[in-house]
User: Which sequence fits this backbone?
């Protein structure tokens, strides 16, 4: 059997693949991992967003770093592989506040909550089909997506591993 | 240029190394006082790193770690953080409170506050040493503690720093206890570029072109 196409999606990165592949976002803290799948075109992609919005006064060095540049870029890269926006199904996880102990920790390091809001807002404005989301809270998440069966799994230190959704089964149910 | 990464000259790097040695030296002495154990601290490596690479610097990125994050305010703004792999954190807990949680789910009020206290002590002695050396006013703000996947802790700190114009300095530190302790920790310092220039200026280093 040929080795599976295992893609590690690091901070601010975008990865796309046509055909069998697994995507992993390791240890999402305040960052968000967004996965998009077009089952018919057999194209899947993931972005590891760090911040909600690109800086207006600075050039964007890596589009995947920001929600407002990373999401359109991921879609564009998938379209190049033959995906169509109208068939895309999405799910995302992350946006935690991992510093749970300490006095006024709720008022600081709130990038996670802002990331979650930004991604949700951008996807809703696009009219995207969002299948599932697992955002907020105080646990870091490792997210793995298998493009072949569409399973999206979320693992945390405290809660173990669970299946968040199956991106392919949902499409069949919706059809 | 990747964000968070700057190429400093020899003068700047030696000032940073000196600052780290003095600051962490004081922090180690403070740690020895609270634990009642003699410690030596070694800093084998100081480097400036691109933000995207920071979360990969702490061994296995999926390992569970204890992260103590301490925001700095005053003439220099930014964040400092200590990251301890789980096994090292357990040794620290043994010293501080006489027992150690076996899993992250067993962390109770006492063990959480022990780590916060380490944060307080380490960051205030670190900042005092740098204040004394440079004449700059620096004050620690209350620390925050996370017990999680090490990648998620480090990434959360740099994401926060990315909003400001910051530069990441990663220092690998090893604590050697006198009684067979071998505690590895990592010190991450993410000052703003403006703050770092103030420090260079205070130390008499001409500003880099």
Assistant:
């Amino acid at each position: 059997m040929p080795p599976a196409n295992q893609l590690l999606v690091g901070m601010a990165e975008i990865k796309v693949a046509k055909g069998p592949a697994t995507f992993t976002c390791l240890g999402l803290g305040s960052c968000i991992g967004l996965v998009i799948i077009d089952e018919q075109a057999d194209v899947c992609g993931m972005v590891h967003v760090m911040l909600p919005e690109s800086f207006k006064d600075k050039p964007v060095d890596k589009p995947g770093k920001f929600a407002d540049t990373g999401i359109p870029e991921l879609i564009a890269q998938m379209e190049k592989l033959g995906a169509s926006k109208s068939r895309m199904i999405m799910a995302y996880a992350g946006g935690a506040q991992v510093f749970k102990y300490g006095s006024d920790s709720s008022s600081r390091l709130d990038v996670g909550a802002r990331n979650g809001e930004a991604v949700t807002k951008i996807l809703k404005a696009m009219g995207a089909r969002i299948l599932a989301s697992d955002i907020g809270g105080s646990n870091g998440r490792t997210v793995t997506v298998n493009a072949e069966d569409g399973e999206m799994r979320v693992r945390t230190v405290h809660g173990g591993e669970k299946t968040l959704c199956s991106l392919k089964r949902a499409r069949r149910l919706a059809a | 240029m990747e964000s968070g990464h700057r190429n400093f000259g020899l003068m700047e790097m030696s000032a940073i190394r000196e600052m780290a040695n003095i600051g962490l030296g004081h922090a180690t002495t403070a740690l020895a006082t609270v634990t009642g154990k003699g410690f030596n601290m070694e800093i084998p490596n100081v480097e400036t790193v691109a933000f995207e690479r920071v979360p990969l610097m702490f061994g296995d990125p999926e390992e569970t770690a204890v992260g103590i994050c301490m925001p700095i305010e005053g003439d220099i703004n930014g964040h400092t953080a200590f990251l301890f792999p789980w096994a090292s954190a357990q040794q620290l807990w043994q010293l501080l409170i006489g027992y150690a949680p076996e899993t992250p789910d067993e962390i109770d009020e006492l063990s959480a506050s022990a780590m916060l206290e380490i944060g307080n002590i380490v960051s205030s002695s670190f900042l005092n040493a740098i204040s004394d050396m440079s004449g700059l006013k620096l004050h620690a703000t209350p620390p925050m503690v996370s017990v999680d996947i090490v990648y998620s802790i480090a990434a959360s700190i740099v994401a926060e720093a990315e909003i400001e114009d910051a530069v990441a300095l990663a220092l690998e530190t090893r604590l050697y206890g006198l009684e067979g302790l071998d505690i590895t920790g990592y010190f991450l310092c993410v000052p703003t570029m403006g703050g770092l220039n103030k420090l260079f200026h205070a130390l008499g280093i001409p500003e880099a072109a």
Summary: Residues 10-202 of chain B form a domain with the Chemotaxis protein chec fold (CATH 3.40.1550.10).
